[in-house]
Amino acid sequence: ATFMVIPHHGGQCFKVTFGDLTLVFDPISKGASLPAVRFGADIALVSRNHPDMNGIEEVTYGDKQPFAVTGPGEYERQEVVIQGFLSKSKYGLAKGEEDAINTIYSVELEDMTLVHLGALSDTELSKEARESIDEIDVLFVPVGGDGVLSPAKAHELAVSLEPKIIVPMHWSGIGVPKALEAFLKEAGNGSEKVDKLTLKKKDLIGKDGSILVVTP
After folding, report:
1. What pLDDT was estimated at residue 1?
2. N or C: the chain end with fewer CB closer than 10 Å?
3. How is the chain classified by DSSP, letter by letter?
């Protein structure tokens, strides 16, 4: 069986490779507060329209021209089924803005479900998202405070969604200082550090909210 390899590029950016397919969540653009990414992707998902997360051009590289998903809806591409759900972010707001659109993505790939919450500031999911998302294998949750979930709220929401694996994000390069430490302290039950996530469906059996910190 093929497996997924998921490295972290800082911020909210995770690259998912599976066989010949490359998908990216929240690629970092030029002019962001983080170093821009540069690799080719087949599918690029953008949760929040902000340079820290909307680098579609940066992942248009070599012979890869990504299928760009930048908002709520249902999409299917190369046997990947994607659902985007409307939510809110308070990250990087322009002057006078109360909040901004954030899209939560649920991605089904080879009978595994990855859910990326984006730059979420809502402390709970919409009814539509809750009804459509079940059996989460990997949940990427922002823990940085300052416009996204605080470490405590991030932990509370993550646990309520009952994923097999929880991957904290929005702590490397962005987020309040020591957000990751605060999140891990909140969780209290130990975590594992990996330099990339390597996933096979059978490895997920028996996992129950295990926290994996993927170091950029």
Report:
1. 57
2. N
3. ---EEE-B-STT-EEEEETTEEEEESPPPTTSSSPPP----SEEE-SSSSTTT--TGGG-BTTB--EEE-SSEEEEETTEEEEEEEEEE-TTPPTT-S-EEEEEEEEEETTEEEEE--S---SS--HHHHHH--S-SEEEEE---TTS--HHHHHHHHHHT--SEEEEES-SSSSSTTHHHHHHHHH-S--EEESSEEE-GGGGTT--SEEEEE--
CA-only gyration radius of the chain, Å: 16
Scanning the structure block, which residue is given the tokens 């030029």?
A: 30
What is the separation of C-alpha 17 from the centre of its chain, rounded to a whole number of angstroms?
A: 14
Instruction: Compute the mean pLDDT over every residue in the chain, rounded to the nearest whole number.
Output: 95
And the tokens for 146? 């300052």
Span between the terminal Cα atoms of the chain, in Å: 26
User: Does the structure show a pLDDT above 90 at 146?
Assistant: yes
Residue keyed to tokens 């930048």: 70
- Average pLDDT for residues 129-155, to the nearest whole number? 96
12-35: per-residue pLDDT in tens? 999 999 999 999 999 999 999 999
